[in-house]
Amino acid sequence: MIEISVPGKLFIAGEYAVVEPGHPAVIVAVDQFITITVNASTGSGSIQSQQYSDLPIKWTRRNDQLVLDVRENPFHYILAAIHLTEKYAQEQGRRLSFYDLKVTSELDNSSGRKYGLGSSGAVTVATVKALNAFYRLEMDQMDIFKLSALAHLEVQGNGSCGDIAASCYGGWIAFSTFDPNWVKAAQDRLTMTELLAADWPFLMIKPLTAPKNLRLLIGWTGSPASTSDLVDQVHESKEHRAERYQQFLTDSRTCVDDLITAFQEQNVPLIKEKITANRALLNRLTNITGVVIETPALKTMCDLAEHYQGAAKSSGAGGGDCGIVIVDQKTGILPLMSAWETSEITPLPLHVYSYPQR
Questions:
Q1: What's the pLDDT score for residue 71?
Q2: In terms of DSSP bridges, do strands 204-208 and 172-176 run parallel, antiparallel, or are they unpaired?
């Protein structure tokens, strides 16, 4: 049996701008996981996920393509990851076989409500990593990122793939996305092996080291948000306000570059200053596009954190889900936790997750 666990993620800064190639974000992997197990089988295989049903969905093969025995299925990210990983496996001379694949997730609560920790990205990465082990492909982190990104874009069609990077690399990372038009054009002319080996324009993934006296807090508003819908809304709105949107992109790049420098210099006060500045930028984006990023619950969460000496903002697409707070390790957090709970903000007991060093 093969068992692979990958962490969820939270965006720290750079949201929305990060979907534009070359615009940086800071992202962190957190210690809630999606786990995939793969067991070899014969004649047919199955896919099972507790998120959708306890019953496995059977699959077979037709001309070396995986075919489900039901028309409607909720496993689009898993299937895209299987399809592309097996395409690569065939190029490496591997013979395709059958297996039972099972998914378990900690990235939502007991009633199935999502926390906004990147479950679709994590399940994509977990599937690729599991089949990498199953077929003994020996892909490195960048290969796994690229293959997972291709699968994710095949299904979602937008987004930065920053969640993919966080699930692949773990810890704190600085990230900027690739040029999707270049990648789509390259898919038509390159083999999968050649595409993974190529340099993708604008792509950057750099590990960061957080200062020892930095503490990350996470609050959940209890209101799930759809990242792809919110990103679509911002893109539709930006066409009518191109000049102001371009200024937002420029200011976001400067802010996040300064934040990355603050991490490299281990400067917690500057990190807090740039988190606060990024919150203001996202509120400006709401004024530009009309898309509500910081909901009233997120505003309450952030305002309370600032009252107790933290620097806070929404995380990811906003519109619900989580907010993040950076505080100095010496700052007492119990008064903030009590204030959050009074305002129906749920503190999440999450920690930064880094993969063990090999």
A1: 46
A2: antiparallel
For strand 172-176 and strand 98-105, is the pairing parallel, antiparallel, or unpaired?
Answer: unpaired
CA distance 179 to 229: 21
Question: Residue with structure tokens 């880094």?
Answer: 354
Residue from 76, 228, 77 nearest 158 by CA: 228
Residues 252, 257, 258, CA angle at the centre, nearest 5°? 100
CA distances from 106 to 109, 116, 134, 178, 290 (A): 7, 12, 23, 29, 33
CA angle 214, 120, 48 (to 5 degrees): 125
Contacts of 26 (CB under 8 A, 6+ apart): 11, 12, 13, 14, 172, 173, 174, 175, 208, 256, 259, 260, 263
279's enclosing H/E stretch is helix 268-289
pLDDT at 112 over 60: no
Cα separation, 107 vs 118, whole angstroms:
8
Query: Beta strands 98-105 and 45-49: pairing type?
Result: parallel
Q: Is 28 helix (H, G, I), strand (E, B) or coil?
A: strand
- From edge to edge, which strands make up the β-sheet containing 322-328? 311-314, 322-328, 214-220, 346-347
Task: Report the predicted TM-score, pTM, of the whole model to 2 decimal places.
Answer: 0.90
For 190-193, the CB contacts below 8 A with 24+ separation are 191/91, 192/84, 192/87, 192/88, 192/91, 192/147, 193/88, 193/91, 193/92
What is the per-residue burial (b if ≥16 Cβ within 10 Å, else e) of 229-251? ebbebbbebbeeeeeebeebbeb
Rounded CA gap, 286 and 99, in Å?
Answer: 47
Q: Is 292 within 8 Å of 271 (Cβ atoms)?
A: no
Give the pLDDT confidence of 301-328 residue by residue, as tens digits: 999 999 999 999 999 877 768 999 999 9
